[in-house]
Specification:
By secondary structure, the chain is of the alpha/beta class. The protein has 16 helices and 11 strands. The strands form 3 sheets. A 7-stranded mixed beta sheet has the order 7-6-5-8-10-9-11, with helices on both faces. Strand 3 and strand 4 form a beta hairpin. Helix 9 runs antiparallel to helix 10. The protein is globular, with a radius of gyration of 24 Å.
């Protein structure tokens, strides 16, 4: 019995140590993020979206950027690094879509409203659709071509390579020196190009990425919790990595690429489900930099049902693991500084956190009942208090990303703090509840098991008054993973009851969160399949 106790303890401590190390590296990104805020406050003239004067390039070298040059494009002057490119360089706007009947019209209207000279950009709709979306797009294209826009609908004979294949083939048709990319559910602002293109004055900048905003954050609990996680990525993580001189990522949409950076990175490749992260790392290893603009928001729609959200999570988690498997050897063979390699490793392996959360939760239940066998060896529940630093780190990072960041100032502190205190425990619980689903995706990615790119359906739902009028694009069946989530909620509920019975409440809060997390994920998954009302 003692051997079993040590085996369970070992697995638990390994998992908890990984989670804690991950949280501490997030705290390091928070340090760089807050340091950036201090620089802005010390120099109010400094453009918060302009790179600081001293940065590390893609090879870890420290470079000095000029800060006194500006260009004029349209009606606005932007402070940018030198030397300036020609005013208003030609841009190709790519819209890769597949069956986006409800939202594509909104996106086309938005990109034709750019306050950028009409003769200096073209719009390519990379349409792989198999439904009536194709006819809707064709009508939009005819109408806007009649108004003088350079807009085309590009339909491939074969939908090979999914989104990566569409972007790869579409690049061959593009005339622009710079390529802006938007997924179908985004609604970019009219000044998007004017606020992003000037940052390419530095020839080493390969990508300019903007922050995702959320059109339908208040829609339901699922959208609110997604927004909480994304807000951290698009504040603390992206800014922290940029200011720390580490590798960033293009997020697949709402950003602009320098065409030469795409080529230098080896082009779009469809061998992972996260072609955006893949090319981001490859282009930076080739010497290009990514500039992230926290103050430039690009609104988009969040998935509103659990199964669509889980489908998106599967693609992101599995794709992240595939990209880690593919590129980690190249990262470690590069000349990047050690700290940048470490952050890149954690970034690429970020999806693995769910695997360790799952192991930690599963192992904690038998550990609860064998703690007595470990007591003679001087091991008791007090040892676990050392890992509370990880939880405190997570709370701090999410508080800053959702309450104190420059991007979250729309609400007053009096409203945002109580909302955070209410939602964060729910977010933590449901994140734990996703650990089985996401762990399966991660393991598939590391094993090299291939699967098709599954799009996340969107329905142009913005407010709580909007309803899902049609189940078009919503498909699915009760999977073994969903059944497993229901069984795990019972497993952890029994652990809570057992803890009360034996008088050992060491893990009772942890197990309660796991019970609620798996139970809620199971309930919404079944409900959104229409199996319960």
């Amino acid at each position: 019995m003692t051997l079993v106790a040590f085996l369970v303890l070992g697995l638990y401590l390994i998992s908890l140590s990984y989670i804690t190390a991950y949280c501490l590296l997030q705290l390091n990104l928070l340090y760089h993020y807050l340091r950036n805020r201090q620089v802005e406050q010390a120099d109010p003239i400094l453009d918060p979206d302009r790179p600081l004067q001293r940065q590390k390039n893609g090879q870890g070298e420290s470079v000095m950027l000029a800060s006194d040059t500006s260009i004029r494009c349209g009606s606005e002057t932007a402070v940018i690094p030198a030397p300036p490119p020609p005013a208003c360089p030609f841009v190709t706007v790519q819209l890769p879509i597949y069956n986006e009947y409800y939202v594509i019209g909104r996106l086309i209207d938005a990109v034709t409203a750019f306050d950028y000279p009409k003769d200096r950009y073209e719009i390519h709709i990379l349409d792989d659709s198999t439904d009536e979306t194709t006819e809707l797009v064709a009508a939009k294209v005819r109408a806007y071509r009649a108004e003088g826009y350079q807009i085309r609908q590009i339909i491939r004979e074969e939908r090979t390579g999914f989104k990566a294949g569409a972007l790869r083939d579409g690049t061959e048709e593009a005339r622009g020196e710079f390529i802006a990319i938007f997924d179908a559910d985004f609604v970019p602002a009219p000044d998007f190009l004017r606020r992003t293109i000037p940052h390419f004055s530095d020839s080493r900048v390969g990508v300019v990425q903007t922050r995702w905003e959320h059109l339908n954050e208040p829609y339901n609990l699922i959208t609110r919790l997604q927004a909480m996680q994304l807000n951290v990525h698009f504040t603390v993580e992206q800014v922290g990595r940029m200011r720390g001189g580490h590798l960033l990522q293009f997020n697949g949409t709402a950003g602009v690429w320098r065409r030469k950076a795409i080529a230098a990175g080896g082009g779009w490749q469809p061998d992972t489900l996260t072609e955006d992260l893949d090319l981001s790392i490859r282009s930076q290893l080739a010497g290009y930099r990514i500039v992230y603009l926290e103050r430039v928001g690009s609104p988009a729609e969040l998935p509103v049902d659990m199964n669509s959200f889980k489908s998106q999570q599967h693609r992101w988690m599995k794709g992240g693991a595939e990209t880690a498997r593919k590129l980690l050897p190249e990262v470690w063979r590069s000349s990047l500084p050690l700290d940048t390699k470490l952050h890149a490793t954690v970034h690429l392996m970020a999806s693995s956190i769910f695997l360790f959360v799952f192991l930690c939760g599963v192992c904690s239940v038998p550990l609860l009942f064998v703690m007595g066998d470990l007591a003679p060896f001087g091991i008791d529940k007090d040892v676990f208090a050392l890992f509370l630093v990880g939880l405190l780190s997570v709370v701090t990072v999410y508080y800053v990303g959702n309450v104190r960041s420059a991007a979250s100032k729309a609400e007053s502190v009096a409203r945002s703090v109580p909302k955070f205190l209410l939602l964060f425990p729910v977010f933590l619980s449901l994140s734990m509840g996703l650990s089985l689903h996401n762990s399966v995706a991660v393991l598939q990615g590391y094993r090299g098991k291939k699967s098709p790119f599954v799009r996340t359906p969107k329905f142009n739902l913005r407010s709580v008054s909007d309803s899902l009028r049609s189940r078009k694009y919503l498909t699915g069946r009760l999977s073994w993973i969903t059944v497993g989530e229901g069984l795990l909620s019972i497993y952890f509920l029994l652990a809570v009851v057992g803890a009360v019975y034996i008088g050992n409440t060491t893990f009772i809060v942890f197990h309660t969160l796991l019970t609620l997390g798996f139970g809620t994920i199971f309930f919404y998954s079944v409900k959104d399949l229409g199996l319960v009302k």
